[in-house]
Amino acid sequence: MVPFLHTWHKVCYIKNMLQSKLFSKVRKEAPSEEVSKNAKLLIKAGFIYKEMAGVYAYLPLGLRVLEKIKNIVREEMEKIGGQEIIMTALQRKDLWEKTDRWDDKNVDVWFKSKLQSGADIGFAWSHEEPITEMMKGCVASFRDLPALVFQFQIKFRNELRAKSGIMRGREFLMKDMYSYAANKEMHDKIYERAIQAYWNVFKRVGIKNDTFMTFASGGAFTQFSHEFQTITDGGEDFIYINREKNIAVNAEILNDKTLKELGVKQEELEKVETSEVGNIFSFGTGKCEQLGLFYKNSEGESAPVWLGSYGIGITRLMGVLVEKFSDDRGIIWPKSVAPFQVHLLCLDVGDKKIKSSADKIYNLLLKEGIEVLFDDRQAKTAGEKFADADLIGAPIRLVVSKKTEDAKSVEMKIRSEAKAKLVPSKSLINTLKKYAKI
Amino acid sequence: MVPFLHTWHKVCYIKNMLQSKLFSKVRKEAPSEEVSKNAKLLIKAGFIYKEMAGVYAYLPLGLRVLEKIKNIVREEMEKIGGQEIIMTALQRKDLWEKTDRWDDKNVDVWFKSKLQSGADIGFAWSHEEPITEMMKGCVASFRDLPALVFQFQIKFRNELRAKSGIMRGREFLMKDMYSYAANKEMHDKIYERAIQAYWNVFKRVGIKNDTFMTFASGGAFTQFSHEFQTITDGGEDFIYINREKNIAVNAEILNDKTLKELGVKQEELEKVETSEVGNIFSFGTGKCEQLGLFYKNSEGESAPVWLGSYGIGITRLMGVLVEKFSDDRGIIWPKSVAPFQVHLLCLDVGDKKIKSSADKIYNLLLKEGIEVLFDDRQAKTAGEKFADADLIGAPIRLVVSKKTEDAKSVEMKIRSEAKAKLVPSKSLINTLKKYAKI
């Protein structure tokens, strides 16, 4: 029978949950040339694999984190009316020439190649041009506006240097949204709503309190832009902040004029190391005029469309989370994006009675719909299992052993806390649910 | 509160379900240069957008179909132990040189470019080499085997011609799985299970009865391979079949020797036009020996790993479904992959009472978890709405109008059937559920 209701995707990763079956392994060392903390930890913990500098594959654990981040972003974009699509990597030269963004002198991160016919093609480093071209077939009258379109798409950027792990990739996953509006008022309203959606995302992944929205240069995009900068070690930027006055300024535009406009003195600002986790650009009507996207207003007159562009680097955001939420033993995932909520360790796998108890706990957790990675590996010592669990960084570690079995309990430890405690087996589920609600 | 259980993805496309809000539009015409039926229909119905020949973007309706096909394939791959990852498009030259698949003389579909350092890089047209290289860090002993790894990844192939719509793309989505086994017996067992998983996929998307597994040349992959060929107009291949004897042979290997081996005469074979929907390759131990993937067997001796490779072109499969399941009015989606199960049409939107009844039906369907696209557009005539519904091809069309309202009914029509019938509003849900179970 074909099911009547099709959910978008189904969760079906039970096989992966047995650590003995997980093909990707925890490693002793990251590649020696790897300097970034995020890549070192993620490679050692078996989340990613380095193909070359700035180019990483995502293994089962890493893919789970990515999909969870995507899902949070997807929900927030849909809440403000975003409709999901997927554009193409291959790009036509003629389209980008219209806006002066084909020439390597203007955009120095293109990867380019040729069709067998000899025609030039590029690999997309952004998507304003093709999406706007496409919208010419979708927007005819004011009734078709506003339109918000977003995608999760691989971007290719031929970066000269790529030493920040997954925080700056030559190939990376980005959520990019584009808004099309009939006039400045409509455009500004969407822009404000997008800012709010971004704050919701950053709150849900746990970095809102350390994230600041700054006014910055627009680079290859526009004259000015807004950036969301998160305080973190290993960041590539510096910003100047005043927490009390809720002021944040990018180094590149910090000057006397800016200070005066913001009503703050240089000495009141604190310099902090940050990483950009989101950026938004207002193109006004310029881009749509260049590409020929016009609509008929209610008077039947032709008018250019307003364009906004909103990016969140999904893989970069994952890197920032690792930079922020980790200690010398490994990663400490926020609950909202952890690959598994619970890491269940069975210490005496060889003892049938102990293994059977652990199996029961495992099945109980699955039955309750709690995501669990079950360390059922035979050849590993208790010490190795504890070290791997700390490295992988699930929010909750549970241990079943001879000792816990004798006490009719399970040992529970929150990854971010120092001490473990014994929880009676009977009240385990309630204790877990209580923790999750905090 | 952060939810404790994280499903992999959540369904949240309600906004898209109002056709008045859907930014992508049904079109009168496909681009004049488009010759394939699948691309013509999908462009007209607003599922895809043509970026250039062989390069298509997927709009909200098209993305839904893709995700449903992916989900079916994902479930079947996981059932046989596949673990999902995502590799990279960017490829290192040195890796592919080891197996003689870098040179354009051997593989003529590469897109190549250069890093800013001047180093050559390629865009992946397949992934045996990088995945096998990666597995060198995952497979050490016989205890690590078998390992099955799969991904949904964009492939780039610089095809000379691309005239078959989404059935042959220069950029297309593929599910590729790779199996690593300790010996021939283990390898053959996985290969057989993969064949069964493929049959399950083809059954669930509705093409099993018209699909044949053939023995074929291995092309750039191996000397021989198995292909899954589906009878369809617009196919790029021909095969020879005998349905009674369940024999299928590719044209390229049809000769006296093959006929004798199969025990069939030329005149007993029927020539049919087909499209390849899946292929599987056995590399034996050759590829792993070239790349240096060895494991320690139970005697502690080093032995090479057996490699199998299993592809399903997800976008191609979507194209084949459109070729097969369509008529002169539009697409007729199989229930398992339809973007929506129900297309609800409100014909007299201007009449508040009628619109209110349609809204009620819409909300009732949503409450029951039935996916529905609601045509609530004001400016369209009944004729236009019927034509669009036929073009888009949801399995069930429901109509609410003055006429149906007077009869306290809803008009229901199965897309693949000729006649509509009135269903009393009260029994609508039961009728729909009954239909879904057939």
Task: Summarize it.
Chain A has helices spanning 37-44, 60-79, 93-97, 128-135, 184-204, 256-262, 286-291, 314-324, 352-367, 382-392, 402-406, 428-437; strands at residues 48-52, 55-58, 83-84, 90-92, 111-114, 120-123, 147-156, 171-181, 211-217, 224-231, 237-242, 247-250, 270-284, 294-296, 302-304, 306-313, 326-327, 330-331, 342-346, 372-375, 396-400, 409-414, 420-424. By secondary structure, chain A is of the alpha+beta class. In chain A, the strands form 6 sheets. In chain A, strands 3, 7, 8, 9, 10, 11, 12, 13 and 16 form a 9-stranded mixed beta sheet that branches. The first copy, chain A, has a 5-stranded mixed beta sheet with strand order 20-19-21-22-23, with helices on both faces.
Fold blueprint:
The structure is a homodimer of 438-residue chains.
Chain A: H1 37-44, E1 48-52, E2 55-58, H2 60-79, E3 83-84, E4 90-92, H3 93-97, E5 111-114, E6 120-123, H4 128-135, E7 147-156, E8 171-181, H5 184-204, E9 211-217, E10 224-231, E11 237-242, E12 247-250, H6 256-262, E13 270-284, H7 286-291, E14 294-296, E15 302-304, E16 306-313, H8 314-324, E17 326-327, E18 330-331, E19 342-346, H9 352-367, E20 372-375, H10 382-392, E21 396-400, H11 402-406, E22 409-414, E23 420-424, H12 428-437
Parallel strand pairs in A: 3-7, 19-20, 19-21
Antiparallel strand pairs in A: 1-2, 4-6, 5-6, 7-8, 8-16, 9-10, 10-13, 11-12, 11-13, 13-16, 14-15, 17-18, 21-22, 22-23
Helix pairs in contact in A: 1-8, 2-5, 2-8
